[in-house]
Fold this protein.
Amino acid sequence: MKTHIRKLTLFMASTSLLFIAANNYKDNKGLKDYYKKYFPIGVAVRPADFSSGESNLIINEFNSVTPENAMKMGPIHPREDRYYWRDADTIVNFAIRNKLKVRGHTLCWHAQTPNWLFTDSAGNNVSKEILLQRLESHINTVVSRYKGKIYAWDVVNEAIADGPEYLRKSKWTEITGEEFIEKAFEYAHAADPDAVLFYNDYNTEIPAKRDKIYKLLKGLKEKGIPVHGVGLQAHWSVSTPTRQELEKSIEMFSSLGLQIQFTELDISVYSGRQGGQLIQGQQQQQQKAEFTAEMEQQQLEKYKMVFDVFRKYKKNITGVTFWNVSDKYTWLDGRGRKNYPLLFDQELKPKKAYWEVVKF
């Protein structure tokens, strides 16, 4: 009888703790509230997120949204004479209804860009003048449509090479050299003088690439080009970056007088650099991978470290955005194995790492 009572007591205590935890989360603040005195907390979204359980999670936890794909040039401007506004409008309207800020992503990129932009009717490269005219028309049309609704834009995305070259080889550089970068910022500023304009890139903690990005931004600033901030994508893992690498990047780019935003944050449970892995076409068959206790602990420690750094540099950082809502769907899934890179699990519940991020 005593054993039975003891087991019953332990069960009731355990149940009580679970009940308290559930109610604490239900009534508790979201990420945006914990970081109210620090910086906005955003998330990359798709229209599909608004017709499922993710919708309430977005509203409760975040105060900024970024379209994951809907505003990239290919999806929003598939043909020269056609714009596809529905998905982008859906995201912006959701944000307005729920008093969320919006970051526009992205106006100029080497990927997810339609071929018509670079070629004439015969399939040959257009001249630099024609390409820049098309870029100007695209940026003016998109930015003007959302003027006053989108507070910041990733204007140019990933223009710096990963290897020894300075600029990434692309149709943009092949036809215009470096000029497309300067012009993109000028066109965006003309379309919305109040928008905050960012250069956005990944692996910004690797010294060689960081130095090239610094060189680019310093040159733009010296020429009076209207670039206001740098987006550090933050596609990280349990092994990268180190605290020293991260702090060095913040200090270097802040020295240029630029805003710092971490624009695409996720922390993979697999070691190695995760940035730059573009997923195209249908997703591969995912390998079944368990989210182990070791993965959970390593990820928790990395999230704890990076947010400790973010809080330390709160005067320099004007936004942190997670890339996708929860582990239920993330862009990394397409690499053929299930990643668990976010603070919410596949059932949209906060993971242990979540509580470390808000415990300060």
